[in-house]
Amino acid sequence: MSASSWAWLALLLPLLGSIVVSLGFRTIPARVAGIVGTAAIGLAFVCAIGALASLLGEDADARHHASSLWTYAGAAGLDIKLGIYVDQLSVFMLLVVTGVSTLIHLYSFGYMQSDEGYHRFFSYLNFFVFSMLLLVLAGNFALLIVGWAFVGFASYALISFWYRRTTATRAGMKAFVINVVGDIGLVLAAFLIFRELGSFEYGAVFAQAPHVFARGEWTVTAICLLLLVGAFAKSAQIPFHTWLPDAMEGPTPVSSLIHAATMVTAGVYLIARTHVLFYLAPTAADIGAFVGLATLLVAGTIALTMTDLKRAIAYSTMSQIGYMVMGVSIGAYAQGLFHLMTHAFFKALLFMTAGSIISAMANRQDIDRMSGFWKAMRFTSLMFVIGGLALAAFPLTSGFFSKDSILAYAGARGGMYAWMAIGGYVGAFLTALYTFRLIFRVLPGKPCEEAQHLIDTGELYHGPAINPANEELEDADVGFPGAHHHIAEQSRPMALAMAVLSVGALFAGLIQVPGVDNVLFGFLDPAFADVPLSAIHPSVGEEWRGLAIGAAISLAGIGLAWILWVRRPELPGLLRERLRPAYLLFVNKWYFDEAIDFLVVRPALAIGRFANSIFERLVVDGLVSGTRETVEGAGGIVRVVQSGFVRSYALLLIAGFAGLALYFLLSSS
Amino acid sequence: MSIEWYIVLSSLLFATGAMGILIRRSPVVILLCLELMLNAGNLALVAFSRMVGNQQGQIFALVVMVVAACEVVVGLGLIVAIFRRKLPLDVDELRELRG
Questions:
Q1: What's the ipTM?
Q2: Boundaries of every domain in chain A
Q3: Which of A142, A477, A561, A659 has its CA 20 to 30 A from that of A404?
Q4: Cβ contacts (< 8 Å) between B30 and chain A: which residues?
């Protein structure tokens, strides 16, 4: 079978799974629904492997296929096909998305077991995977936008999954609105591309772009800036990042799947996919790189002071995506995608462990309350440490190789980009620090009440269901996992999913060790060979020098975290007092929410109020009631005739006839 | 006799009927006046038929008589119904249709 047939199958299976689960929610038992949903994604992963195998059987230069089923929208001069584009990049994304999604479905199978909305959850989850695959496989910008918007909807539906939580529904709306801003950017970019190049098809657009645009021309810069708006909104980069931490209101597998491993990397994919355009617009690419750098630093500092376990990991996600966005913006395409893959492994794993711990804490997410979980949950703690090591780029873990490959490329490109590499190393230090802050505060020490309960009785602590965001008592009717929690130690599917991911988090970096093997870059590089930037390769010596620096920084960060939170636990308090302004800045998340509120939300509300109180009253109401009064007035005149006196009707009738007769008499004579 | 006499008589009858409708308030009298107007029309039809020399006008007059009979049946039925409900038999009092 050809690569594109495999890809079509991979696209179809999650859609089928979603339809079957959602239509059969009354008839299919919950267990079966979970199995169907998981199997659909698992089979899609098998198809992705099939596509990879079929692609590997071809020449490196011929590994791109456009395939279409039928015309999706045809009009004068417009010809959009329902088509996919299969090349190294999309097959790579296909593998990552389906692979990680399969494991997360497996995890959800255990984690969500006591949830009332089990069918709903799996149908949403399958729909999400379908949309994400549509996004990465789309063969033209129109279908890309379709997938892009579907993904946004799926994210909204899953964030607001526990719809009795007002904080969750509000977070869902926030995510949706910010994502729509990104959608608008993408749509406008597609319009501009069509106006300039006359096509939506990837093949035609990327083949013609270098001939139509001069490098640095303003149109292509505008296109790329608009694409960046889309990418930033989806990938939670400054200033569109505020939805991601709030999105942690959703169930933890959702955070793991959408807000760590797959959807938020769509922006990275978009930049990598349109790398031809970004090469032609160096200004836009530099802006992308700077925003990525700023995001990775800002998010790293916020994660340092965050006390909510899931939100801290969410800020870490933003920070890591900052690395990827910076990488693909400066030309480190394969490197950025490498980090995308390893990040998908270790971040999904970290969220899974967080879910397990939160279950044991009876839904509490505050790390101030947590301690001593090493004694209570050995397996989860081990997974947490593995994920943390990979995130902190501990030597020889996956994050170590992938993060440093981006920074080594930035160093090799030189100039301004070498300074970015230094910023990246600062970010790496922050990453190690905040990651091990979480680990040192949650795992060691004297077990907290909940952990002690687990050790003593072997059962989970059952507290009242409390919303971790606003401390309100929750309405548990729609099946919060509150009443019956699930932890990895007691649920085989969860443990299996975490174990597989931990292998990926530890060893996935070994497929791309500088000077030793070149599996991933060897596969991906031909897809980016059409721009000269991909020809820049740091030498093996440079790479290892970078790796050595990275290792030292990672160990220093972990060491400092050990001093601060284990050895001398009084130090963080002292630092907080000493560095009060910085602490306030970080703990208030750099006041981004407040700034957006002031700059966007309030003016919009003011316009809305003006429209409601002045425009609506005077103009709209004036038009409506004016029409009404005109009709009423005209009716009033006619009403006088309708007196109800039969004889007056008769008089009118007779007078009318007499008048007519008179007229004809006079006109005939 | 020339046609004018017939037409003058017919017009007089018609005017009488119309006047009756306009000035009388009893429904029964109004019905009578209606009949008067219809028969004025009949008279004119028959007269013109004689003058032109074909029979179509006379057939028309027969049709008008049938219609008049029907109309009287309906009208008298209405009057009886009004009477049974003890409503005033006065067309000026019966003015629910006022706009």
A1: 0.85
A2: 593-668
A3: A561
A4: 646
